[in-house]
Amino acid sequence: MALTATPIPCLSDNYAWLLRAADGRLAVCDPAEDAPVAKAVEAMGGKLDLILLTHHHGDHVAGVPGLVARYGAKVVGAAADRHRLPPLDQAVSPGETVDVLGSKAAVLASDGHTRGHIAFHIADSQILLCGDTLFSLGCGRLLEGTAEQMFASLAALAALPGETLVCCGHEYTESNARFAITVEPNNAALKARIAEAQAQRAAGKPTLPSTIASERAANPFMRAPDIATLARIRAGKDSFR
Ligand code: ZN
Ligand code: FE
User: Fold this and answer.
1) What's the 170 CA to ligand 2 centre distance in angstroms?
2) What is the pTM of this model?
3) The 3-state secondary structure of the chain, one letter per residue
4) How far away, in angstroms, is 4 Cα from ligand 1 center?
5) Ligand 2: distance of its center to the CA of 23 in Å?
6) Is position 83 annotated as part of the catalytic site?
7) Closest ligand to 11 CA?
8) What pLDDT digit, counting tens, does each position of 13-51 carry?
9) Is position 55 annotated as part of the catalytic site?
């Protein structure tokens, strides 16, 4: 495994993902805050080379200025969103690859939650950094994009190898589970995933990363057979209490 990914809790329910290469070099994806990320970086050697950004929301980028000032890390984000991201050292577009600590990350179009949202798939490490597109048992709200875009984005992620680790932006799994079970009350894989997530939270652990195989089997948003169904489920979740 070329890189390892560790979730760093930020704010109330965000995760920044700290990536570590075998030689000890570090990168981070979506630093919502600088302090918890810096603390983890200090514990792992005190150098941060790279910052990856999936989208422009403050709860994914607010830690960038502090980390750049402290470590001089290079910032990578979507060319299409350059105007509303922190200053980028490398602007990338879907279809391109970016070097992440010696591993290749494929840049995937991931519109839906926002326009210009991207995901990074690091195949040699089986890591997917998907921001607010795919959550365990859920998907991002359609704040800027359409159900059609989210359907395409989720289909592209579902096509990744099953063992791929889903490193997403929020610890939403338990609240997603409460809605998901109303959509698929008889899905055994979903019931098993809910039990697993409850045990993880009870032990004080993150429910993430999940895997693409687990989401394919248990996530009603990823399992929606067509755009209309995804739109209906997403609207149902938006009003679910
Ligand atoms: Zn967001
Ligand atoms: Fe977010």
Assistant:
1) 6
2) 0.98
3) CCEEEEEEEECCCEEEEEEEECCCCEEEECCCCCHHHHHHHHHCCCCCCEEECCCCCHHHHCCHHHHHHHHCCEEEEEHHHHHHCCCCCEEECCCCEEEECCEEEEEEECCCCCCCCEEEEEHHHCEEEEECCEECCEECCCCCCCHHHHHHHHHHHHCCCCCCEEEECECCHHHHHHHHHHHCCCCHHHHHHHHHHHHHHHCCCCCCCEEHHHHHHHCHHHHCCCHHHHHHHHHHHHCCC
4) 24
5) 30
6) no
7) 2
8) 999 999 999 999 999 999 999 999 999 999 999 999 999
9) yes
